[in-house]
Amino acid sequence: MTDKPTNGYFAVIGTYTWGGSEGIYVCEMDPKSGNLSNVSSVDGVKNPTFVAIHPTNSYLYAISEDIEPDDPRAGRVVAYAINRATGQLTKINETSSVGSGPCHISVDQTGKFALVANFQSGSVAVIPINDDGSVGEATDFVQHVGSSVNPERQTGPHAHSINLDPGNCHAVVADLGLDQVIIYRFDPVRGTLSANDPFVYKSAPGAGPRHFDFHPNGRYAYLINEIGNTLTGFNYVSETGVLKPIGTKSTLPDDFTGTSHTADIHVSPSGKYLYGSNRGHDSITIFEINQADGSLELVDVESTRGKVPRNFAIDPSGSFLYAANQDTSDIFTFRINPINGRLKPTGDVVHVPNPVCIKFVPKM
Q1: How far apart (Å, rounded) are the C-alpha atoms in residues 346 and 356?
Q2: 118, 203, 223, 352: most buried by Cβ count inside 10 Å?
Q3: Is the domain 9-362 a CATH 2.130.10.10 member?
Q4: Verdict on whether the full-model pTM lies above 0.85
């Protein structure tokens, strides 16, 4: 596990800007208790749901999940400077995400590019980051084409996340509408994406790939499928960017008969456990990762104490998990048992309107 910094962290929280939300919230995290306390917020951007932190921890990038029928480029990427002493965010500038309804953003390891997944329009884009933290016009753009079997959710492409592999060489895109995980070669000098060969993993029809995470060892990777309520493990071949399936597990208890859809997925910093969130069952499912082959064994399913855990986060030390319940506007803190990965509520809860994404920034 990563050592805890003496000064702790700020937790930066993206939200949907309805029901009183101001936009992006910043909380201070106590490194001993894990408790969160509100520090500041910044408004002026519609639906800054997902955020990403620059490798220097000096800048933050948020998508504006905007959808305008007459503007296929309505989505925005907004850059902020982070004051790591106070937690204050200051807007630098913004640019087009070259698509509609962006829902995920990540920053490459060089800090020169942000990569964006546009859900509504089913596309991905690469956005350059300047030395002063500002963003420029896209250096590359790829429009996905096709559909899958679900007549309500999969009539067209819906890129739901874009993640770079540990080598910063391949970008992995989970497309819910296509039932595909598309892997691109990423050029970190020019900021371009090119087809990888072979470059597509086809999930089970109707599964709906959503979010993706790599194991710290770089050899394993995991996909959460929104519509199918499943997790799929892979062996990852870093040299070629190829995913080789290990197996698929349900995220729901066998006796659950209601409606639920998965959302987020994270491997613990220790690499021992995998966590996935269920919206409807309103829980976090915990798996132990077999270190020898990457396979999964169910450990437990823990209630998030609220409704619709859109996302969750594990702090950098691996000590605490924060469940962001969108519909009840609260974030519950859980302590992670390092022996078995189970979650125990600490009793701490912070109220943030419509929380979606949580990222950590070390305090100065």
Answers
A1: 21
A2: 118
A3: yes
A4: yes
